[in-house]
Amino acid sequence: MKRKGILIIVSGFSGAGKGTLVKKLLEEYDGYALSISATTRKPRPGEEDGREYFFLEKEQFERRIAEDGLIEYACYCENYYGTPREYVERQLAEGKDVILEIEIQGALKVKKQYEDALLLFVMPPSAGELKRRLVGRGTETGEVIAKRMCRAAEEAEGIEAYDYIVVNDDLQTCVRQLHEIITAAHHTPLRNKEFIENIRTELEGEK
Ligand code: ADP
Ligand code: 5GP
């Protein structure tokens, strides 16, 4: 039986550790592909075009929307972010589990298009620790950190739309939990429709 890829959405408040977790997941386990998003946000020091994001001007981004080149897009803290369609569909067809590290509005749009998408939400151990991580990362100004903390409070209202939450306290434990949840998700009837139908047909033939 050919393994079918699952579309996995990893959301969570800015600074919760999504980027760190996903990087480790890809390093430690096989079978995953990471979708690189397009954004109009300016690169942070050390970020490279085509590695963390495809950094686009607003006009270029709007052209991608018009061409239907994005599975979803959203506006987050005054910038556009979106998921390029072609890469995701190709990797899924090849049986890879494709990870989208995206915020909640985008997650809900994907869920409408892909009924078997798996929605995971990364939580910090506490709000105080979230702020410490955002400040400690040292990539945003105080003003941007304040905006992202406000946005976290809004996003917290939507957590029930997700299938699972994971708490990123000890990094290694959290990476293992993510992988275990994804492994289990491969075994639900919804994600094995074809196999189940085939067995049913065979059983009819054996009567
Ligand atoms: P996000 O992608 O969710 O915005 P990052 O992966 O950039 O978050 O992590 C935010 C900061 O928190 C980074 O400085 C990272 O090194 C740190 N961090 C991530 N996970 C942990 C953890 N389990 N314990 C302590 N610090 C962490
Ligand atoms: P950051 O600026 O910290 O890299 O990302 C800000 C937020 O945008 C994060 O919550 C991140 O998950 C989200 N994000 C990144 N790429 C995408 C995308 O393609 N679509 C959507 N909807 N959100 C994204």
Topology:
Elements: E1 7-12, H1 18-28, E2 32-34, E3 38-39, E4 54-55, H2 58-66, E5 70-76, E6 79-84, H3 85-93, E7 97-101, H4 104-113, E8 118-123, H5 127-137, H6 142-155, E9 164-167, H7 171-185, H8 193-206
Parallel strand pairs: 1-7, 1-8, 2-7, 3-4, 8-9
Antiparallel strand pairs: 3-6, 5-6
Structural class: alpha/beta
| Strand residue content | 15-25%
Count helical runs: 8
SSE pattern: EHEEEHEEHEHEHHEHH
Query: Which hetero ligands occur in this complex?
Result: adenosine-5'-diphosphate, guanosine-5'-monophosphate
The low-confidence parts are: none
In angstroms, what separates the terminal alpha carbons?
Answer: 23 Å
* Strands side by side in the biggest sheet: 2-7-1-8-9
The number of E-state strands comes to 9
Mean pLDDT across residues: 96
Give the proportion of residues in helices. 40-55%
- Overall, the morphology is globular
The main pleated sheet reads as: 5 strands, parallel
C-alpha-based Rg, rounded: 18 Å
Please give a structural write-up.
Helix content is 45%, strand content 20%. By secondary structure, it is α/β, with parallel strands linked by helices. The strands form 2 sheets. The protein has a 5-stranded parallel beta sheet with strand order 2-7-1-8-9. Strands 4-3-6-5 form a 4-stranded mixed beta sheet. A hairpin with a 2-residue loop joins strand 5 and strand 6. Helix 1 packs across helix 7. It starts with 6 loop residues before the first strand and ends with a helix. Adenosine-5'-diphosphate is lined by residues 12, 14-20, 133, 136-137, 168, 171. The site of adenosine-5'-diphosphate has 13 residues, from helix 1 and helix 5.
